[in-house]
Write a structure and sequence with these properties.
four-stranded antiparallel β-sheet; 26 strands; 432 residues
Length: 432
């Protein structure tokens, strides 16, 4: 079933990357004579190139590399303080040991005091009793330097300072409980879930990074976690997932100063995915030994029925759906077992994907269809005289089919020559 999962990931995610090579194929799909949804745009392919380049340049213009420089430098500085494992160089000599690591291994609280600057009343170093008390936990160091700890409370704040930066870690009280009974061992597992976990990094009293996680365990079979990342300069990435007994939804957005730049949404219909009992799978080995384990990927592959997805980049949208994922995967499995050569296989695989996948590119501000996105198989065989060897490349790639019937692979359409201004802008802004 690994091939099926790869195919499903290809269908849902490759549209976001838009990377392909120019190839030839034997059977190109034609334009949809009665396309549903948005009306076809009257622009020519060359006019679409100009408009798409303009959209891409607007996106690039929203990013300022200088916004990330201070953050990158500060995080690199933090690495020198963290208790990473010692690494040996190519001569077998140990490298420089971070100060915090030295303090931890020495078991000396006073040494640790000099390595970590106390930044709030909620970070307390008890040198007399050989302990560090953080709101929520009390760490006690013995002679070996290995700390033990006792839990004081779920709500906590820890602040650590280095150079001109302060990192603050906070977490909230229990907001939910996930309970699972493991029948084989007759054990009930209970996981207490905090209401939030937050990490904030300030440099010169200005916040450059904020990461906030809200687990949101609604009940034992319904989850709605949310991740929010804010970066200095007005950038914000928000990812939300909602999983219940019938479907799995996902939404990710990239915003700058409250303006949406990029978004990706998907919805998969699958019954019982949030019930771990459904993930149980048996693996039989050659000696007759049978092992039971959890395999949510296998359950997803075998039970997801249909999907919808959408990617937005400013005024450009890629909208798609898969009508019957299980039938598509079954046909792919049969094709794999019966195909004798790569060329036949990938041409037939592209036909299967075109049968079940409906994908279009549109301008979302005018609700005009740019092109249908279909798939084609390719097979190239070449001989390299210099190295005296044969090279074979084969696979499936997306193609753009415009309302006038013209067809382009992505590499044929997005050329350096036609998008020269965009590439120059990227080079000037971000370097070679």
């Amino acid at each position: 079933m690994k091939r099926s999962f790869t195919l499903l990931a290809l269908c849902a995610m490759s549209l976001a990357t838009f990377s392909a090579c120019t190839h030839t194929n034997e059977e190109d799909p034609g334009p949809n004579p009665n396309p549903p949804g948005p009306a076809p745009s009257e622009l020519t392919p060359d006019e679409h190139k100009q408009k798409l380049e303009s959209i891409a340049m607007q996106l690039v213009d929203e990013f300022n590399p200088a916004d990330f420089n201070t953050l990158t430098e500060s995080l690199a500085s933090l690495a020198s303080y963290l208790p990473f494992e010692e690494e040996e160089d190519e001569w077998g000599d140990s490298g420089e040991v971070p100060e915090v690591t030295q303090a931890l291994k020495s078991g000396s609280v006073s040494a640790l005091t000099s390595a970590i600057t106390r930044a709030s009343e909620q970070f307390i170093i008890d040198a007399n009793n050989g302990a560090i008390e953080v709101e929520g936990y009390r760490f006690i160091f013995d002679e070996s330097g290995e700390p033990s700890y006792e839990e004081l409370d779920r709500t906590g704040v820890v602040e650590v300072a280095w150079d001109n930066a302060v990192a603050t870690f906070t977490w909230g009280e229990n907001d939910g409980r996930y309970t699972y009974y493991f029948e084989e061992e007759d054990v009930e597992y209970i996981v207490e879930v905090p209401s939030y976990i937050n990490v904030s990094l300030k440099i010169d009293n200005v916040e450059h990074l904020n990461i906030n996680v809200e687990p949101k365990v609604i009940d034992n079979y319904t989850f709605a976690p949310k991740l929010t990342i804010k970066i200095y300069g007005g950038y914000e990435v928000v990812t939300e997932v909602n999983a219940d007994s019938q479907k799995l939804n996902h939404n990710t957005t990239l915003n700058k100063n409250a303006k949406n730049l990029i978004s990706a949404t998907s919805e998969f219909y699958i019954n019982g995915f949030t019930n771990p009992d459904n993930w149980l799978a048996e693996y039989e080995y050659g000696d007759g030994y049978v092992e039971t384990g959890y395999d949510p990927e296998e359950y997803f592959n075998n039970n997801v029925t249909s999907a919808q997805f959408r990617y937005d980049v400013l005024t450009l949208s890629i909208i798609g759906s898969c009508s019957d994922i299980q039938k598509m995967l079954e046909e792919e499995e049969k094709l794999y077992d019966s195909s004798d050569d790569d060329a036949t296989y990938y041409n037939a695989l592209a036909a299967i994907m075109n049968k079940y996948l409906d994908i279009i590119a549109v301008y979302n501000d005018t609700d005009e269809r740019i092109a249908d996105i279909k798939w084609q198989g390719f097979y190239n065989h070449s001989y390299d005289e210099e190295y005296d060897c044969e090279t074979i490349t084969a696979g499936c790639e997306p193609i753009l089919i415009f309302p006038d019937g013209s067809k382009f692979s992505l590499e044929q359409f997005f050329t350096m020559e036609d998008f020269e201004d965009l590439f120059e802008q990227i080079s000037e802004k971000f370097g070679e």
